Amino acid sequence: MKKIEAIIRPFKLEDVKIALVNSGIVGMTVSEVRGFGRQKGQVERYRGSEFTVEFLQKLKVEVVVENKKVSSVIDAIAEAAKTGEIGDGKIFISSIDSVVRIRTGDTDEEAL
């Protein structure tokens, strides 16, 4: 099993959600996060004054999938989240040793 974490632009969430559902994903976790990468923040104007927003608002979408679904889920996220501009985000993939569904006690693939 793999955990896929995608850092995306907030306005792309609905597109990513639809792409994941169409890929057979039935659950996901979404968190509001702040950060920067190559984009290095942005300059904003407020009441005539300029200031730099160093940490930009992003969303982190997390899903855990069976190994056979990893590449299709990554492709779906990348396609749905892409604008072609700097700051589109990143996708991280890590291994998951085990999963337990609390309600039923199901483990691993049955718990997904």
Proportion in helices: 10-25%
Q: Would you tell me the overall average pLDDT?
A: 89
Terminal CA distance: 10 Å
CATH architecture: 2-Layer Sandwich
Structural class: alpha+beta
Indicate the overall shape: elongated
Largest sheet: 4 strands, antiparallel
* Fraction in beta strands: 35-45%
Q: What count of helical segments does DSSP give?
A: 2
CATH topology: Alpha-Beta Plaits
User: Largest beta sheet: what is the strand line-up?
Assistant: 2-5-1-6
- How many separate domains make up the residues? 1
Radius of gyration from the CA trace? 17 Å
Give an overview in words.
With 112 residues, the chain is an alpha+beta fold. It has one domain (2-111): Alpha-Beta Plaits. The protein is built from 2 helices and 6 strands. Strands 2-5-1-6 form a 4-stranded antiparallel β-sheet, covered by helices on one side. Strands 3-4 form a two-stranded antiparallel ribbon. A hairpin with a 2-residue loop joins strand 3 and strand 4 (49-53). Helix 1 runs antiparallel to helix 2 (70-81). The mean pLDDT is 89.
